[in-house]
Amino acid sequence: MAQGYLLFHLNLAFSSIPAEARPEVIRKCYWPLLRLAEDTGIPIGIELTGWTLRQIATLDHSWVERFRQMLAGRQCELIGSGWSQIIGPLVPYDVNRRNQKLGLETYREVLGVTPKVALVNEMAFSTGMVDVYVESGYEGIVMDRDNVRLALGLDHAPISATPTHAMGCGDFPLPVLWSDSILFQRLQRVVHGDIPVSEYMAYVGRRADQDNAPLPIYCNDAEIFDYRPGRFVAESRLHPEGEWQRLKRVCHGLQEYLALTWLSPGEALELQAATPKPNGRRLTSVCQPIPVKKQAKYNIARWAVTGRDDLWLNTSCHQIHQAFRESGTEQDDSWRELCELWASDLRTHITDARWNDAVVRVSALRCQLGLERIQSSGTDTVESNRLPSGIDFPKGVQITQNEEGILWTIKTPYIHLVLNARRGLTIRSLAFKSHDFAPVVGTLPQGYFSSIELGADFYSGGVIIEMPGERVRVTDLEWVLPNIRQRGTEILISAMIPLVEGNLEKTITVGVDTERVTLTYDFQPSKRPQGIVRVGIITLLPESLSLPLAVRCANGGQKTEFFQLDDVVNHGGAASTLVSSTAAFGATDGRLVIEDARSRCLVLTWNPADCAAIPMLQHQCSRDRYLARLSFSLCELDDTSRTGGRLMRFSVALSTA
């Protein structure tokens, strides 16, 4: 006998819904949802943030009272979310932990209920977030199945091969209640009148026969029935039958024609958790370190470096978070405000009024904390060109150039660095003392790979800017005359490189008494283009590294996650002509480690409070050789991208520890 469940996501912070329309959303969407549960007897799961719950209580307290009564009568089930709908894998562990704490406190205060199951916000999942949910007391999570199956290479395997439990970085797995993008989109289409009811019933019938598991008939937004949020220019018209009425008819049809038995989400999860052969594993891979919902246009860059000005907003939030930690801030109201500013909806199709309000709130909080304005361009200027012979360098430091003036070599007791002045101070080779001065980062010249597919030079330390709408591609591979100067125990090599609009000041800082080289990119002016901006591109030199390679970083959790480079990876590959990337790491503490089989490490560190860039990986093999590169994205393109925004000055340090 077929079984199924319904789960509705309620979100008054929905990006494209203006604040003044919220009472209408409650009336047209949230009340009909409760009536659907009453009229059909279906134990519907209702997920909402603590913030949305408080807003409903303020605007229509009678809805909250009715919801509370229905929860007590088990006519529906509360699914947890947090205080705010934030993208956990892009947010520091401390903020994720507090977001869950504040949400759970609100559920208990307003509804007298503590949810046992949490829905992963925007279905943006990371292994480290499992531990956050475990620590918060949840007994299970709801996550999108399709992209996890894709991440694990199970997209063509039977549904029974899908894991039943999600492993975190710790020792406590959580059972997973699966959502299904195709199933919920098919229900949306039949309710909107885009497909016939008979076609929908036939599809669900086939899925019931194939899946042999409870069907996630719907796990998505409530605000799209008898209402249109206004995200897109072309949205379907409202169905004249009344979409909640039509949904009710479809639900009855599933019971009548398919003999479908309705379960609550909690009951469905218990069935899955009670399987005699639980299948627990990590739900991520190096290709998809952060699986998200729906089709490929939805990826983690959507909330990181697109939108109106995601890079600035995320950088501001990181800076506020660091100020909270340094000052020991414990006031719940302050943390609520930060969680609200980290909400996913501010980073997508946000309305003008709500975006302007968010900017004012960020400014007010920064002023309250006494924070200086975020620097989007550098305060140091490049001095007139100076040859190294004019500087009295510390003992053990040598700076030389080859006879053509192309290659500049900087040697300290700890670092050997060769820069290419003909190619914008890109790195020809970088070697550390603890690696026996075997270069691990540098340039793979054209001809290194036999395949024409890789028939190019692969530099390190460079910049790529692409503006597809203008058919423009810009790099920093220009001939420069380096400016070399000393600052304390550091040697600074810099150059001003002209771009299509403005200049790029690039600085390489070498520590005289440490194994550390820092790359800094300062765009002047700092206006963000309508395109792609990737900086700090690092190419690994295979001859000095032992396979297999692995990457370690934290994606919203307290512990680092481990990814072995055992597959073809291209995070920066375009998902379509309108979406410029497919994946990225969160690296929420500003640290990423590349490690080889001999535990030889390359450590990359940056401060997200200066620039919240996201690292992207490329890895592919060509015969007996491989290409492994890492870059940092400051800007990507998708359907949320808008003109304007700014590029923050970005610095990344390369070291061995």
Summarize this entry quickly:
The chain is an alpha+beta fold and 657 residues long. Helices cover 27% and strands 25% of the residues.
Itemize the secondary structure elements and their pairings.
Blueprint: E1 3-10, H1 22-40, E2 44-48, H2 50-59, H3 61-72, E3 76-79, H4 93-111, E4 117-119, H5 127-136, E5 140-144, H6 145-151, E6 165-166, E7 174-179, H7 181-192, H8 197-211, E8 215-221, H9 243-258, E9 261-262, H10 265-273, E10 280-281, H11 310-327, H12 332-341, H13 352-369, E11 398-401, E12 407-411, E13 415-420, E14 426-432, E15 441-442, E16 462-467, E17 472-475, E18 483-487, E19 490-498, E20 503-511, E21 516-524, E22 532-539, E23 550-553, E24 561-564, E25 569-570, E26 591-595, E27 601-605, E28 614-622, E29 625-635, E30 650-655
Parallel strand pairs: 1-2, 1-8, 1-9, 2-3, 4-5, 5-7, 6-10
Antiparallel strand pairs: 6-7, 11-12, 12-13, 13-14, 14-15, 16-17, 16-22, 18-19, 19-20, 20-21, 21-30, 22-29, 23-24, 23-26, 25-28, 26-27, 27-30, 28-29
